[in-house]
Structures are given as C-alpha cells and as structure tokens.
UniProtKB/TrEMBL annotation:
<dbReference type="InterPro" id="IPR049545">
    <property type="entry name" value="Gta3_dom"/>
</dbReference>
<dbReference type="Pfam" id="PF20978">
    <property type="entry name" value="Gta3"/>
</dbReference>
<protein>
    <submittedName>
        <fullName>Glutamyl-tRNA(Gln) amidotransferase subunit F, mitochondrial</fullName>
    </submittedName>
</protein>
<dbReference type="GO" id="GO:0030956">
    <property type="term" value="C:glutamyl-tRNA(Gln) amidotransferase complex"/>
</dbReference>
<feature type="domain" description="Glutamyl-tRNA amidotransferase complex subunit Gta3">
    <location>
        <begin position="63"/>
        <end position="116"/>
    </location>
</feature>
<dbReference type="GO" id="GO:0032543">
    <property type="term" value="P:mitochondrial translation"/>
</dbReference>
<dbReference type="GO" id="GO:0006450">
    <property type="term" value="P:regulation of translational fidelity"/>
</dbReference>
<dbReference type="InterPro" id="IPR003837">
    <property type="entry name" value="GatC"/>
</dbReference>
<dbReference type="GO" id="GO:0005739">
    <property type="term" value="C:mitochondrion"/>
</dbReference>
<dbReference type="GO" id="GO:0070681">
    <property type="term" value="P:glutaminyl-tRNAGln biosynthesis via transamidation"/>
</dbReference>
C-alpha cells in the first residue's frame, strides 16, 4: 500500500472504525442523515493512479545514467552485460524509470504515519489467536515446581528417553543386511581382485 500526501486524500473519507462498523452491518447512532457517505461512490472514482509514479519521457531524459554506470551495476549484481546497443538502451531506459519511481516514493510525506513493526494480520481475531494465555502454558507449568523459601522455580526432570527413535527398533542391527559374517555385515566392493 502506497501512502499519499494528505492533500491528495479524498475529503469525506470515513475513518477505519466507521468502515468496520459498516462492514459488519451495524453503524454507530447518528441523529442526522448528513453524515451518511456513499462508500461505493467514493471507491468508484480513484483518487490517484499508479501511472502518476511513472515518469514522463522528459523526466526519463533528465535522469542521467551512463552506460558505464549500467555496466558497473550489472557487474555488482552479477547480471549479464547487454548483448547489443539496443538492449543496453532498453536497460538504461528501464533503470531511469525505476530511479524515478523510487524518488517519487521517497518524496511522499509520511509525517505522523507510524511505521509497521512487522507485516502481520492485526485484526482482533488474529491478535486473540496469537496471544499466549494460561491454557497454552499449562503443560510447561506442570513441569515446574516451587522450591525453597525464596520460591524459586525449578524444572522437574523428566525420565530419560533411552530410545529417542521410539520402540520400533528391536536391537537387531544386522536384520536388514543382505550378507553377514558372524556379528558383522559384509559390504561388496567393485574391486574383487585386490583381496
């Protein structure tokens, strides 16, 4: 989601909370009907376009990118060099367009916008689902005991598992060997003449 300067935001947009109330079919009490805003009408007309972030031909020409800089960037990123002059010109045009796009994004006024801590679902349901409570901790807490006058918590040692692979192994390591000699298994090699 791209942030736009506040001057470009359509006046009359509803707050996020008001939209949430409308999405669930209920709305906050209001005595006047003048507060009603048609969301479909607002969303039907775009307030801006992605093409506004793309450069015009004159803006592309104003961004200086030399073939030497292009070759240097390609070497740094371990990409192949252009095979022809036309391919080089196309790469330079694309690079100028990308530079213009990045500069447009950087010029956006984001004062007062709190940056994201992480990209995650921040709905109340997701927050509730990811919250760790006593139910999730019961098993871990059952393996602890309080010791001493200072009431220190010690982990109760569980019995050692002598067979971490489970009870499937019967102790017969030679059971699956195709050839055995005594208590050893035989490995066939390709060089029979050496012995």
């Amino acid at each position: 989601m791209l942030l736009r300067p506040s001057s470009r935001i359509v006046p009359g947009l509803l707050s996020r909370q008001a939209l949430r109330f409308r999405a669930h079919g209920s709305r906050p009490y209001s005595s006047s009907k003048s507060d009603e805003v048609d969301i479909d009408a607002i969303l039907a007309k775009p307030s801006w376009s992605v093409t506004s972030l793309l450069p015009s031909e004159s803006a592309i020409e104003s961004t200086p990118v030399t073939p030497k800089q292009l070759h240097h960037l390609l070497r740094l990123s371990a990409l192949p060099q252009p095979a022809s002059k036309e391919e080089e010109d196309a790469m330079i045009r694309t690079l100028k367009s990308q530079i213009h796009f990045v500069k447009e994004i950087q010029s956006i006024d984001a004062t007062g916008v709190e940056p994201l801590q992480a990209i995650r679902d921040e709905t109340p349901e997701a927050i509730h689902e990811n919250t760790i409570g006593l139910e999730q901790l019961k098993e871990a807490m059952s393996k602890e005991r309080v010791v001493g006058r200072n009431r220190r918590i010690h982990r109760v040692e569980s019995p050692r598992n002598d067979r971490p692979d489970g009870d499937a192994w019967d102790g017969n390591a030679l059971g699956y060997a195709s050839k055995t000699k005594g208590k050893f298994f035989v490995v066939e090699t390709g060089n029979e003449s050496g012995n």
